[in-house]
Amino acid sequence: MSVDVKTVKRVAHLARIAVSEDDAERMTGELNAILGFVEQLNEVDVSGVEPMTSVTPMEMKKRGDVVTDGNKAADIVANAPATDENFFLVPKVVE
Amino acid sequence: MSDLIHLTISQARAKLRAKEITATEITEAYLLAIDRANPALNAYVAVTGDKARDMAKTSDARLLKGEGGALEGIPLGIKDLFGTEGVHTQACSHVLDGFKPRYESTVTSNLWADGAVMLGKLNMDEFAMGSSNETSYYGPVINPWRRLRLDTVVMPTTHQGDGGFVSAGGTKTQRSLDNAQLVPGGSSGGSATAVSAFLCAGATATDTGGSIRQPAAFTGTVGVKPTYGRCSRWGIVAFASSLDQAGPIARDVRDAAILLKSMASVDPKDTTSVDRPVPDYEAAIGKPIKGMKVGIPKEYRVDGMPEEIEALWQKGIAWLRDAGAEIVDISLPHTKYALPAYYIVAPAEASSNLARYDGVRYGLRVPGKDIVEMYEKTRAAGFGREVKRRIMIGTYVLSAGYYDAYYLQAQKVRNLIKRDFENVFAAGVDVILTPATPSAAFGIADEDMAADPVKMYLNDIFTVTVNMAGLPGIAVPAGLDPKGLPLGLQLIGRPFEEETLFQTAAVIEQAAGSFQPEKWW
Q1: Contact A49/B99, CB-based, under 8 Å?
Q2: CB of A87 less than 8 A from some CB of B
Q3: B333 contact A CB<8A
Q4: Domain boundary among B129, B156, B177
Q5: pLDDT beyond 90 at B254
Protein backbone atom coordinates (compact mmCIF):
# COMPACT_ATOMS: atom_id res chain seq x y z
CA MET A 1 0.00 0.00 0.00
CA SER A 2 1.15 3.53 -0.59
CA VAL A 3 -0.08 6.97 0.35
CA ASP A 4 -0.71 10.07 -1.76
CA VAL A 5 -0.31 13.71 -0.76
CA LYS A 6 -3.98 13.96 0.13
CA THR A 7 -3.73 11.03 2.56
CA VAL A 8 -0.58 12.49 4.08
CA LYS A 9 -2.39 15.75 4.75
CA ARG A 10 -5.31 13.89 6.32
CA VAL A 11 -2.96 11.87 8.56
CA ALA A 12 -1.07 15.05 9.51
CA HIS A 13 -4.35 16.60 10.59
CA LEU A 14 -5.25 13.48 12.60
CA ALA A 15 -1.82 13.75 14.25
CA ARG A 16 -2.35 17.50 14.79
CA ILE A 17 0.80 18.48 12.93
CA ALA A 18 0.59 21.45 10.58
CA VAL A 19 2.23 20.66 7.23
CA SER A 20 3.03 22.92 4.33
CA GLU A 21 2.57 21.83 0.72
CA ASP A 22 6.32 21.12 0.51
CA ASP A 23 6.31 19.15 3.79
CA ALA A 24 3.44 17.01 2.55
CA GLU A 25 5.23 16.30 -0.74
CA ARG A 26 8.44 15.30 1.01
CA MET A 27 6.65 13.22 3.67
CA THR A 28 4.75 11.33 0.98
CA GLY A 29 8.01 9.99 -0.43
CA GLU A 30 9.43 9.18 3.01
CA LEU A 31 6.29 7.48 4.23
CA ASN A 32 6.05 5.40 1.09
CA ALA A 33 9.66 4.27 1.52
CA ILE A 34 8.83 3.07 5.04
CA LEU A 35 5.50 1.51 4.02
CA GLY A 36 7.30 -0.26 1.17
CA PHE A 37 9.82 -1.63 3.65
CA VAL A 38 7.19 -2.98 6.06
CA GLU A 39 5.23 -4.54 3.19
CA GLN A 40 7.33 -7.73 3.52
CA LEU A 41 5.38 -8.61 6.68
CA ASN A 42 2.55 -9.74 4.41
CA GLU A 43 4.57 -12.76 3.31
CA VAL A 44 4.58 -14.18 6.88
CA ASP A 45 2.05 -16.91 7.56
CA VAL A 46 0.35 -15.80 10.77
CA SER A 47 -2.60 -18.19 10.67
CA GLY A 48 -3.42 -19.32 14.18
CA VAL A 49 -1.01 -16.79 15.75
CA GLU A 50 -2.34 -14.46 18.43
CA PRO A 51 -1.21 -10.83 18.35
CA MET A 52 1.20 -10.03 21.17
CA THR A 53 -0.43 -8.22 24.05
CA SER A 54 2.29 -8.51 26.69
CA VAL A 55 5.98 -9.08 26.03
CA THR A 56 6.61 -10.56 29.49
CA PRO A 57 3.98 -13.00 30.70
CA MET A 58 2.79 -11.49 33.95
CA GLU A 59 -0.35 -10.83 35.84
CA MET A 60 -1.50 -7.23 35.80
CA LYS A 61 -0.51 -5.70 39.10
CA LYS A 62 -3.30 -4.25 41.16
CA ARG A 63 -3.00 -1.75 43.95
CA GLY A 64 -5.27 -0.91 46.80
CA ASP A 65 -8.04 1.54 45.92
CA VAL A 66 -6.70 4.20 48.23
CA VAL A 67 -5.51 7.76 47.81
CA THR A 68 -1.70 7.79 47.83
CA ASP A 69 -0.98 11.09 46.15
CA GLY A 70 -2.53 14.49 45.61
CA ASN A 71 -2.73 18.14 46.62
CA LYS A 72 -0.13 19.02 44.00
CA ALA A 73 -2.02 21.45 41.82
CA ALA A 74 0.84 23.95 41.87
CA ASP A 75 3.33 21.25 40.80
CA ILE A 76 1.04 20.08 38.01
CA VAL A 77 0.65 23.50 36.42
CA ALA A 78 4.23 24.60 37.16
CA ASN A 79 5.49 23.84 33.65
CA ALA A 80 2.46 25.03 31.70
CA PRO A 81 2.91 27.86 29.17
CA ALA A 82 -0.19 29.68 30.42
CA THR A 83 -2.08 29.24 33.70
CA ASP A 84 -4.42 31.11 35.98
CA GLU A 85 -5.09 30.07 39.59
CA ASN A 86 -4.03 26.46 38.98
CA PHE A 87 -6.00 26.18 35.73
CA PHE A 88 -4.43 25.58 32.32
CA LEU A 89 -5.30 28.40 29.94
CA VAL A 90 -6.24 27.49 26.36
CA PRO A 91 -7.84 29.35 23.44
CA LYS A 92 -11.64 29.49 23.66
CA VAL A 93 -13.08 26.04 22.86
CA VAL A 94 -16.84 26.52 23.38
CA GLU A 95 -18.69 29.31 21.55
CA MET B 1 43.40 15.28 38.68
CA SER B 2 43.03 13.88 35.17
CA ASP B 3 43.88 10.34 36.29
CA LEU B 4 40.76 10.42 38.51
CA ILE B 5 38.52 10.45 35.44
CA HIS B 6 40.26 7.36 34.09
CA LEU B 7 39.28 5.22 37.06
CA THR B 8 36.58 2.66 36.43
CA ILE B 9 33.61 2.69 38.81
CA SER B 10 34.96 -0.33 40.66
CA GLN B 11 38.39 1.30 41.03
CA ALA B 12 36.93 4.63 42.14
CA ARG B 13 34.63 2.81 44.57
CA ALA B 14 37.61 1.12 46.24
CA LYS B 15 39.60 4.36 46.47
CA LEU B 16 36.62 6.30 47.84
CA ARG B 17 35.95 3.69 50.49
CA ALA B 18 39.63 3.58 51.42
CA LYS B 19 39.51 7.41 51.68
CA GLU B 20 42.38 7.70 49.19
CA ILE B 21 40.28 10.11 47.16
CA THR B 22 37.15 12.13 47.87
CA ALA B 23 33.88 12.39 45.98
CA THR B 24 34.51 16.12 45.67
CA GLU B 25 37.89 15.58 44.00
CA ILE B 26 36.58 13.11 41.45
CA THR B 27 33.49 15.26 40.78
CA GLU B 28 35.64 18.36 40.19
CA ALA B 29 37.88 16.35 37.86
CA TYR B 30 34.89 15.33 35.76
CA LEU B 31 33.39 18.83 35.73
CA LEU B 32 36.71 20.16 34.46
CA ALA B 33 36.92 17.46 31.79
CA ILE B 34 33.35 18.24 30.65
CA ASP B 35 34.11 21.95 30.53
CA ARG B 36 37.07 21.33 28.22
CA ALA B 37 35.58 18.59 26.03
CA ASN B 38 31.93 19.48 25.64
CA PRO B 39 32.36 22.26 23.05
CA ALA B 40 33.97 19.64 20.78
CA LEU B 41 31.87 16.56 21.61
CA ASN B 42 28.45 18.04 22.56
CA ALA B 43 27.72 15.11 24.88
CA TYR B 44 26.02 17.14 27.63
CA VAL B 45 23.00 19.37 27.04
CA ALA B 46 22.96 20.55 30.66
CA VAL B 47 25.74 20.41 33.23
CA THR B 48 24.56 20.49 36.85
CA GLY B 49 27.78 21.64 38.50
CA ASP B 50 26.26 23.05 41.70
CA LYS B 51 24.08 20.02 42.23
CA ALA B 52 27.05 17.71 41.56
CA ARG B 53 29.18 19.54 44.13
CA ASP B 54 26.39 19.40 46.74
CA MET B 55 25.83 15.70 46.14
CA ALA B 56 29.59 15.02 46.31
CA LYS B 57 29.80 16.88 49.61
CA THR B 58 27.01 14.76 51.05
CA SER B 59 28.75 11.64 49.75
CA ASP B 60 32.01 12.66 51.37
CA ALA B 61 30.27 13.09 54.71
CA ARG B 62 28.76 9.61 54.39
CA LEU B 63 32.01 8.03 53.24
CA LEU B 64 33.82 9.59 56.18
CA LYS B 65 31.40 7.85 58.53
CA GLY B 66 31.74 4.61 56.57
CA GLU B 67 28.07 4.82 55.58
CA GLY B 68 28.47 5.06 51.82
CA GLY B 69 25.99 3.37 49.46
CA ALA B 70 26.83 1.09 46.53
CA LEU B 71 27.62 4.05 44.25
CA GLU B 72 28.64 6.58 46.89
CA GLY B 73 30.47 9.49 45.29
CA ILE B 74 30.47 8.04 41.75
CA PRO B 75 29.77 10.81 39.18
CA LEU B 76 27.28 9.79 36.50
CA GLY B 77 25.75 11.33 33.40
CA ILE B 78 21.99 10.97 32.86
CA LYS B 79 20.31 10.68 29.48
CA ASP B 80 17.93 13.59 28.88
CA LEU B 81 15.03 11.11 28.67
CA PHE B 82 15.04 10.55 32.46
CA GLY B 83 12.89 12.91 34.52
CA THR B 84 15.17 14.70 37.00
CA GLU B 85 13.54 17.00 39.52
CA GLY B 86 14.12 20.68 38.83
CA VAL B 87 16.65 19.85 36.10
CA HIS B 88 16.49 20.13 32.29
CA THR B 89 14.45 17.16 30.97
CA GLN B 90 13.48 17.57 27.34
CA ALA B 91 14.21 14.26 25.56
CA CYS B 92 16.35 16.65 23.47
CA SER B 93 13.20 18.00 21.83
CA HIS B 94 12.14 21.58 21.24
CA VAL B 95 8.55 20.65 22.12
CA LEU B 96 9.56 20.21 25.79
CA ASP B 97 11.17 23.64 25.85
CA GLY B 98 12.01 24.69 29.40
CA PHE B 99 10.51 21.58 31.02
CA LYS B 100 11.79 20.92 34.53
CA PRO B 101 9.85 18.10 36.16
CA ARG B 102 8.61 18.25 39.74
CA TYR B 103 9.45 14.58 40.19
CA GLU B 104 12.39 12.19 39.83
CA SER B 105 12.34 9.02 37.73
CA THR B 106 12.55 5.76 39.67
CA VAL B 107 15.82 4.74 38.02
CA THR B 108 17.60 7.99 38.89
CA SER B 109 16.04 7.98 42.39
CA ASN B 110 17.60 4.54 42.88
CA LEU B 111 21.00 5.86 41.77
CA TRP B 112 20.89 8.86 44.11
CA ALA B 113 19.71 6.65 46.98
CA ASP B 114 22.85 4.58 46.42
CA GLY B 115 25.00 7.71 46.62
CA ALA B 116 25.73 8.50 42.96
CA VAL B 117 26.48 12.09 41.92
CA MET B 118 24.71 13.71 38.93
CA LEU B 119 27.01 15.59 36.55
CA GLY B 120 24.31 16.61 34.09
CA LYS B 121 21.96 15.60 31.30
CA LEU B 122 23.21 13.85 28.22
CA ASN B 123 22.42 14.51 24.58
CA MET B 124 20.35 11.99 22.62
CA ASP B 125 18.29 11.64 19.49
CA GLU B 126 15.02 13.55 19.87
CA PHE B 127 12.61 11.34 21.85
CA ALA B 128 15.17 8.52 21.41
CA MET B 129 14.26 8.26 17.73
CA GLY B 130 17.44 7.80 15.76
CA SER B 131 20.59 5.74 15.34
CA SER B 132 23.17 8.50 14.99
CA ASN B 133 22.30 11.17 17.57
CA GLU B 134 21.75 13.60 14.70
CA THR B 135 18.04 14.19 15.37
CA SER B 136 18.68 16.01 18.67
CA TYR B 137 17.37 19.56 18.90
CA TYR B 138 20.73 20.35 20.52
CA GLY B 139 22.75 19.20 17.53
CA PRO B 140 24.70 16.01 16.92
CA VAL B 141 27.04 14.37 19.42
CA ILE B 142 30.53 13.74 18.06
CA ASN B 143 32.12 10.32 18.50
CA PRO B 144 35.44 10.59 20.37
CA TRP B 145 36.74 7.92 18.01
CA ARG B 146 38.20 8.92 14.65
CA ARG B 147 39.39 6.80 11.77
CA LEU B 148 43.09 6.16 11.41
CA ARG B 149 44.81 7.57 8.37
CA LEU B 150 47.78 5.68 7.09
CA ASP B 151 49.59 7.89 4.57
CA THR B 152 52.66 6.81 2.71
CA VAL B 153 55.10 9.70 2.67
CA VAL B 154 58.51 9.99 1.04
CA MET B 155 60.97 10.88 3.73
CA PRO B 156 63.99 13.09 3.38
CA THR B 157 66.86 10.77 4.33
CA THR B 158 67.84 12.79 7.39
CA HIS B 159 64.48 12.24 9.05
CA GLN B 160 64.04 8.59 8.23
CA GLY B 161 62.50 6.52 10.94
CA ASP B 162 61.02 9.27 13.12
CA GLY B 163 57.95 7.73 14.60
CA GLY B 164 57.15 5.62 11.56
CA PHE B 165 58.00 2.45 9.75
CA VAL B 166 60.87 2.91 7.34
CA SER B 167 60.59 1.02 4.10
CA ALA B 168 63.39 0.16 1.72
CA GLY B 169 62.46 2.89 -0.75
CA GLY B 170 62.80 5.73 1.75
CA THR B 171 59.07 6.05 2.41
CA LYS B 172 57.23 5.54 5.62
CA THR B 173 53.67 5.01 6.70
CA GLN B 174 52.53 7.96 8.71
CA ARG B 175 49.81 7.24 11.18
CA SER B 176 47.42 10.05 12.03
CA LEU B 177 43.79 10.58 12.91
CA ASP B 178 41.43 11.46 10.10
CA ASN B 179 39.59 14.74 10.73
CA ALA B 180 36.23 13.41 9.56
CA GLN B 181 33.71 13.51 12.39
CA LEU B 182 31.84 10.31 13.13
CA VAL B 183 28.51 9.70 14.81
CA PRO B 184 28.48 7.98 18.21
CA GLY B 185 25.34 6.04 17.27
CA GLY B 186 21.99 6.62 18.86
CA SER B 187 19.78 7.25 20.45
CA SER B 188 22.01 7.19 23.59
CA GLY B 189 24.87 8.91 21.73
CA GLY B 190 25.57 11.41 24.50
CA SER B 191 25.76 8.61 27.06
CA ALA B 192 28.14 6.55 24.92
CA THR B 193 30.39 9.51 24.06
CA ALA B 194 30.51 10.76 27.65
CA VAL B 195 31.54 7.32 28.93
CA SER B 196 34.04 6.70 26.15
CA ALA B 197 35.64 10.18 26.40
CA PHE B 198 35.91 10.05 30.22
CA LEU B 199 33.25 12.72 30.84
CA CYS B 200 31.45 10.57 33.43
CA ALA B 201 32.21 7.31 35.22
CA GLY B 202 29.09 5.71 33.77
CA ALA B 203 25.80 6.78 32.26
CA THR B 204 22.14 5.91 32.15
CA ALA B 205 20.67 5.17 28.76
CA THR B 206 17.52 3.67 27.24
CA ASP B 207 16.99 1.13 24.49
CA THR B 208 13.85 0.75 22.37
CA GLY B 209 15.38 -0.90 19.29
CA GLY B 210 19.13 -0.79 19.97
CA SER B 211 19.64 2.66 21.49
CA ILE B 212 22.00 1.40 24.21
CA ARG B 213 23.82 -1.39 22.38
CA GLN B 214 24.48 0.31 19.02
CA PRO B 215 26.11 3.46 20.48
CA ALA B 216 28.06 1.29 22.94
CA ALA B 217 29.41 -0.71 19.99
CA PHE B 218 30.28 2.51 18.10
CA THR B 219 32.29 3.91 21.02
CA GLY B 220 34.04 0.87 22.50
CA THR B 221 31.87 0.84 25.63
CA VAL B 222 29.67 -1.76 27.31
CA GLY B 223 25.90 -1.31 27.01
CA VAL B 224 23.18 -3.38 28.63
CA LYS B 225 19.51 -3.55 27.63
CA PRO B 226 17.88 -5.46 30.49
CA THR B 227 14.84 -7.70 30.22
CA TYR B 228 11.62 -5.76 29.72
CA GLY B 229 10.30 -5.05 33.21
CA ARG B 230 13.66 -5.15 35.01
CA CYS B 231 14.08 -1.36 35.29
CA SER B 232 11.11 0.81 36.09
CA ARG B 233 9.95 3.06 33.27
CA TRP B 234 8.31 5.46 35.71
CA GLY B 235 9.47 9.03 35.12
CA ILE B 236 11.21 8.25 31.83
CA VAL B 237 9.82 10.10 28.80
CA ALA B 238 7.90 7.38 26.93
CA PHE B 239 8.68 6.51 23.30
CA ALA B 240 7.30 2.99 22.68
CA SER B 241 6.05 1.64 25.98
CA SER B 242 6.15 -2.08 25.15
CA LEU B 243 9.78 -1.83 23.97
CA ASP B 244 11.48 0.86 26.11
CA GLN B 245 13.95 -0.28 28.76
CA ALA B 246 16.52 1.67 30.74
CA GLY B 247 20.03 0.33 31.16
CA PRO B 248 23.62 1.43 31.73
CA ILE B 249 26.52 2.32 29.45
CA ALA B 250 29.87 1.77 31.17
CA ARG B 251 33.57 1.41 30.46
CA ASP B 252 33.74 -2.26 31.37
CA VAL B 253 31.51 -5.22 32.11
CA ARG B 254 31.94 -4.97 35.87
CA ASP B 255 30.92 -1.31 35.90
CA ALA B 256 27.84 -2.13 33.83
CA ALA B 257 26.92 -4.83 36.38
CA ILE B 258 27.39 -2.41 39.29
CA LEU B 259 25.20 0.23 37.61
CA LEU B 260 22.41 -2.17 36.65
CA LYS B 261 22.22 -3.48 40.21
CA SER B 262 21.41 0.05 41.38
CA MET B 263 19.16 1.05 38.47
CA ALA B 264 16.94 -2.05 38.59
CA SER B 265 14.18 -2.40 41.15
CA VAL B 266 10.63 -3.55 41.72
CA ASP B 267 8.46 -0.47 41.37
CA PRO B 268 4.78 -0.31 42.29
CA LYS B 269 4.54 2.86 40.15
CA ASP B 270 5.20 0.88 36.94
CA THR B 271 2.70 -1.92 36.35
CA THR B 272 5.14 -3.62 33.95
CA SER B 273 7.92 -3.67 36.56
CA VAL B 274 8.43 -7.31 37.42
CA ASP B 275 8.24 -8.65 40.98
CA ARG B 276 11.63 -10.33 41.13
CA PRO B 277 14.47 -9.52 43.47
CA VAL B 278 17.46 -7.81 41.83
CA PRO B 279 20.43 -10.18 41.87
CA ASP B 280 24.05 -9.20 42.55
CA TYR B 281 25.14 -9.00 38.91
CA GLU B 282 28.76 -8.34 39.79
CA ALA B 283 28.99 -11.76 41.43
CA ALA B 284 28.48 -13.38 38.01
CA ILE B 285 31.71 -11.91 36.67
CA GLY B 286 34.59 -14.37 36.69
CA LYS B 287 32.38 -17.45 36.91
CA PRO B 288 33.53 -20.04 34.36
CA ILE B 289 31.39 -20.58 31.28
CA LYS B 290 32.51 -24.18 30.84
CA GLY B 291 29.67 -26.25 29.41
CA MET B 292 27.53 -23.23 28.62
CA LYS B 293 25.60 -23.60 25.36
CA VAL B 294 26.16 -20.63 23.05
CA GLY B 295 23.84 -20.32 20.04
CA ILE B 296 25.02 -18.83 16.73
CA PRO B 297 21.99 -17.78 14.67
CA LYS B 298 22.53 -18.23 10.95
CA GLU B 299 20.02 -15.50 10.09
CA TYR B 300 22.37 -12.85 11.50
CA ARG B 301 24.76 -13.47 8.60
CA VAL B 302 23.23 -10.78 6.39
CA ASP B 303 23.96 -9.85 2.78
CA GLY B 304 26.57 -7.18 2.35
CA MET B 305 27.88 -7.49 5.90
CA PRO B 306 31.48 -6.19 5.99
CA GLU B 307 34.20 -8.83 6.27
CA GLU B 308 35.51 -7.40 9.53
CA ILE B 309 32.15 -7.97 11.21
CA GLU B 310 32.13 -11.63 10.19
CA ALA B 311 35.78 -11.94 11.33
CA LEU B 312 34.91 -10.37 14.69
CA TRP B 313 32.03 -12.78 15.14
CA GLN B 314 34.32 -15.75 14.43
CA LYS B 315 36.82 -14.40 16.96
CA GLY B 316 34.05 -14.19 19.56
CA ILE B 317 33.02 -17.77 18.83
CA ALA B 318 36.63 -18.93 19.24
CA TRP B 319 37.06 -17.08 22.56
CA LEU B 320 33.94 -18.64 24.04
CA ARG B 321 34.86 -22.09 22.71
CA ASP B 322 38.34 -21.74 24.21
CA ALA B 323 36.73 -20.88 27.53
CA GLY B 324 34.87 -24.19 27.45
CA ALA B 325 31.51 -23.18 26.02
CA GLU B 326 29.69 -25.44 23.61
CA ILE B 327 28.97 -23.65 20.34
CA VAL B 328 25.78 -24.65 18.54
CA ASP B 329 24.30 -23.42 15.27
CA ILE B 330 20.74 -22.22 15.72
CA SER B 331 17.99 -20.78 13.57
CA LEU B 332 15.76 -17.82 14.38
CA PRO B 333 13.69 -17.93 11.20
CA HIS B 334 11.68 -14.72 11.67
CA THR B 335 14.71 -12.48 12.27
CA LYS B 336 14.34 -10.55 9.01
CA TYR B 337 10.81 -9.50 9.93
CA ALA B 338 11.78 -7.93 13.25
CA LEU B 339 12.80 -4.57 11.82
CA PRO B 340 9.72 -4.08 9.60
CA ALA B 341 7.46 -5.18 12.49
CA TYR B 342 9.31 -2.75 14.76
CA TYR B 343 8.65 0.11 12.32
CA ILE B 344 4.94 -0.48 12.78
CA VAL B 345 4.79 -1.20 16.51
CA ALA B 346 7.21 1.51 17.68
CA PRO B 347 5.73 4.40 15.64
CA ALA B 348 2.19 3.28 16.61
CA GLU B 349 3.04 3.44 20.30
CA ALA B 350 5.00 6.66 19.79
CA SER B 351 2.10 8.39 18.04
CA SER B 352 -0.05 7.68 21.12
CA ASN B 353 2.62 8.57 23.67
CA LEU B 354 3.54 11.83 21.94
CA ALA B 355 -0.08 12.97 21.71
CA ARG B 356 0.45 14.61 25.10
CA TYR B 357 2.70 17.33 23.65
CA ASP B 358 -0.02 19.80 22.80
CA GLY B 359 1.23 23.11 24.15
CA VAL B 360 -1.18 23.05 27.09
CA ARG B 361 0.49 21.37 30.06
CA TYR B 362 4.20 21.83 29.48
CA GLY B 363 6.79 22.92 27.00
CA LEU B 364 6.43 24.90 23.82
CA ARG B 365 3.24 26.69 22.76
CA VAL B 366 2.76 28.38 19.41
CA PRO B 367 -0.45 30.42 19.37
CA GLY B 368 -3.18 29.78 16.79
CA LYS B 369 -6.58 31.22 15.91
CA ASP B 370 -8.28 28.34 17.74
CA ILE B 371 -7.23 25.39 19.86
CA VAL B 372 -6.74 23.00 16.94
CA GLU B 373 -4.53 25.45 15.10
CA MET B 374 -2.57 25.96 18.33
CA TYR B 375 -2.02 22.20 18.62
CA GLU B 376 -1.00 21.89 14.97
CA LYS B 377 1.38 24.83 15.02
CA THR B 378 2.91 23.83 18.34
CA ARG B 379 3.58 20.28 17.19
CA ALA B 380 4.83 21.41 13.77
CA ALA B 381 7.35 23.75 15.41
CA GLY B 382 8.21 21.50 18.35
CA PHE B 383 8.93 18.15 16.71
CA GLY B 384 11.85 17.47 14.40
CA ARG B 385 11.60 15.69 11.06
CA GLU B 386 12.29 12.14 12.26
CA VAL B 387 9.81 12.43 15.12
CA LYS B 388 7.11 13.79 12.79
CA ARG B 389 7.81 10.99 10.33
CA ARG B 390 7.27 8.37 13.04
CA ILE B 391 4.16 10.03 14.45
CA MET B 392 2.76 10.11 10.92
CA ILE B 393 3.53 6.42 10.30
CA GLY B 394 2.05 5.52 13.67
CA THR B 395 -1.09 7.56 13.08
CA TYR B 396 -1.51 6.01 9.63
CA VAL B 397 -1.10 2.37 10.72
CA LEU B 398 -3.54 2.87 13.60
CA SER B 399 -6.11 4.73 11.51
CA ALA B 400 -9.48 3.23 10.60
CA GLY B 401 -9.23 0.57 7.91
CA TYR B 402 -5.50 -0.04 8.26
CA TYR B 403 -5.22 -1.31 11.85
CA ASP B 404 -5.58 -5.01 10.96
CA ALA B 405 -3.32 -4.90 7.93
CA TYR B 406 -0.47 -3.21 9.74
CA TYR B 407 -0.61 -3.15 13.53
CA LEU B 408 -2.34 -6.47 14.15
CA GLN B 409 -0.15 -8.22 11.57
CA ALA B 410 2.99 -6.74 13.18
CA GLN B 411 1.92 -7.85 16.67
CA LYS B 412 1.36 -11.38 15.35
CA VAL B 413 4.77 -11.41 13.71
CA ARG B 414 6.18 -10.16 16.99
CA ASN B 415 4.84 -13.25 18.72
CA LEU B 416 6.57 -15.41 16.09
CA ILE B 417 9.87 -13.61 16.71
CA LYS B 418 9.49 -14.25 20.44
CA ARG B 419 8.63 -17.88 19.78
CA ASP B 420 11.83 -18.34 17.75
CA PHE B 421 13.83 -17.39 20.83
CA GLU B 422 11.70 -19.52 23.16
CA ASN B 423 12.33 -22.53 20.94
CA VAL B 424 16.13 -22.22 21.05
CA PHE B 425 16.15 -21.54 24.78
CA ALA B 426 13.90 -24.59 25.31
CA ALA B 427 16.45 -26.61 23.32
CA GLY B 428 19.03 -25.78 25.97
CA VAL B 429 20.76 -22.71 24.53
CA ASP B 430 21.91 -20.46 27.40
CA VAL B 431 23.04 -17.43 25.46
CA ILE B 432 23.13 -16.23 21.83
CA LEU B 433 26.17 -14.55 20.27
CA THR B 434 25.77 -12.08 17.37
CA PRO B 435 27.49 -8.97 16.02
CA ALA B 436 26.14 -5.82 17.72
CA THR B 437 25.95 -3.68 14.57
CA PRO B 438 26.30 -4.27 10.82
CA SER B 439 29.13 -1.69 10.57
CA ALA B 440 31.46 0.55 12.54
CA ALA B 441 30.57 4.20 13.24
CA PHE B 442 29.76 6.20 10.12
CA GLY B 443 30.22 9.86 9.25
CA ILE B 444 28.14 12.78 10.47
CA ALA B 445 25.60 13.81 7.80
CA ASP B 446 26.01 10.58 5.84
CA GLU B 447 24.29 11.32 2.54
CA ASP B 448 22.92 7.83 1.88
CA MET B 449 21.26 7.70 5.27
CA ALA B 450 19.89 11.23 5.02
CA ALA B 451 18.29 10.36 1.67
CA ASP B 452 16.67 7.12 2.81
CA PRO B 453 15.25 6.73 6.34
CA VAL B 454 15.15 2.93 5.96
CA LYS B 455 18.92 2.85 5.49
CA MET B 456 19.37 4.48 8.90
CA TYR B 457 16.88 2.04 10.42
CA LEU B 458 19.01 -0.92 9.23
CA ASN B 459 21.58 -0.01 11.91
CA ASP B 460 19.35 -1.78 14.41
CA ILE B 461 19.02 -5.00 12.43
CA PHE B 462 20.87 -7.11 15.04
CA THR B 463 19.53 -5.39 18.15
CA VAL B 464 15.83 -4.85 17.45
CA THR B 465 14.83 -8.53 17.76
CA VAL B 466 15.79 -8.38 21.44
CA ASN B 467 13.35 -5.54 22.15
CA MET B 468 10.59 -7.20 20.16
CA ALA B 469 10.97 -10.32 22.35
CA GLY B 470 11.58 -8.41 25.60
CA LEU B 471 14.90 -10.18 26.20
CA PRO B 472 18.10 -8.92 27.82
CA GLY B 473 21.06 -8.05 25.59
CA ILE B 474 24.57 -6.71 26.11
CA ALA B 475 27.01 -5.10 23.66
CA VAL B 476 30.64 -5.64 24.57
CA PRO B 477 33.67 -4.21 22.74
CA ALA B 478 35.50 -6.98 20.90
CA GLY B 479 38.03 -5.36 18.60
CA LEU B 480 38.91 -2.62 16.14
CA ASP B 481 38.22 -2.54 12.42
CA PRO B 482 41.05 -1.93 9.91
CA LYS B 483 40.48 1.84 10.26
CA GLY B 484 40.93 1.62 14.02
CA LEU B 485 37.25 2.02 14.97
CA PRO B 486 35.71 -0.08 17.73
CA LEU B 487 33.35 -2.97 16.98
CA GLY B 488 31.12 -4.81 19.41
CA LEU B 489 29.58 -8.22 19.88
CA GLN B 490 26.12 -8.77 21.29
CA LEU B 491 24.98 -11.45 23.70
CA ILE B 492 21.28 -12.22 24.08
CA GLY B 493 20.00 -14.05 27.16
CA ARG B 494 16.89 -15.69 28.52
CA PRO B 495 14.41 -13.39 30.26
CA PHE B 496 15.82 -12.12 33.59
CA GLU B 497 19.11 -13.96 33.14
CA GLU B 498 21.25 -10.85 32.90
CA GLU B 499 23.79 -12.65 35.09
CA THR B 500 24.57 -15.04 32.24
CA LEU B 501 25.22 -12.03 30.01
CA PHE B 502 27.66 -10.45 32.47
CA GLN B 503 29.37 -13.80 33.02
CA THR B 504 29.83 -14.41 29.27
CA ALA B 505 30.61 -10.79 28.34
CA ALA B 506 33.41 -10.82 30.92
CA VAL B 507 35.02 -13.72 29.05
CA ILE B 508 34.90 -11.76 25.78
CA GLU B 509 36.27 -8.67 27.51
CA GLN B 510 39.10 -10.68 29.02
CA ALA B 511 40.06 -12.01 25.60
CA ALA B 512 39.50 -8.80 23.61
CA GLY B 513 40.91 -6.24 26.03
CA SER B 514 39.57 -2.72 26.34
CA PHE B 515 39.65 0.15 23.88
CA GLN B 516 40.07 3.88 24.44
CA PRO B 517 39.95 6.62 21.82
CA GLU B 518 43.05 8.71 21.17
CA LYS B 519 42.41 12.14 22.62
CA TRP B 520 42.07 14.87 19.94
CA TRP B 521 39.49 17.11 21.60
Answers
A1: no
A2: no
A3: no
A4: B177
A5: yes
